């Protein structure tokens, strides 16, 4: 497995874990808590990072 694929798997696992935590936090506190907002921002950054990697691979 290439190093890039390994990094992508780690990034995908991080995204999955954050999505799970975000969902749990939403159920506990709702969307207006600062923790939920922070997780949402982190998740968006990770997803964008993943997409940028994939776009570079396509070029």
3D structure, described in words:
By secondary structure, the chain is mostly helical. It has one domain (3-58). 88% of the residues lie in helices and 0% in strands. The protein has helices at 3-29, 34-58. It is elongated, with a radius of gyration of 14 Å.
How do you describe this structure in short?
The protein has 2 helices and no strands. By secondary structure, the protein is mainly alpha-helical. The chain has one domain.
Name the poorly predicted regions.
Answer: none
Give the C-alpha Rg: 14 Å
Strand proportion, as a percent range, falls in under 5%
Q: Mean pLDDT, as a whole number?
A: 90
Helix proportion: over 70%
Query: Could you give the count of β-strands?
Result: 0
Classify the secondary structure makeup into a structural class.
Answer: mainly alpha
Biggest sheet descriptor: none
Q: What's the multimeric state?
A: single chain
Tell me the number of structural domains: 1
Using the alpha-carbon principal axes, give the shape: elongated
Helix/strand order, N-terminal first: HH
Tally of separate helices: 2
- Distance between the amino and carboxyl termini: 20 Å
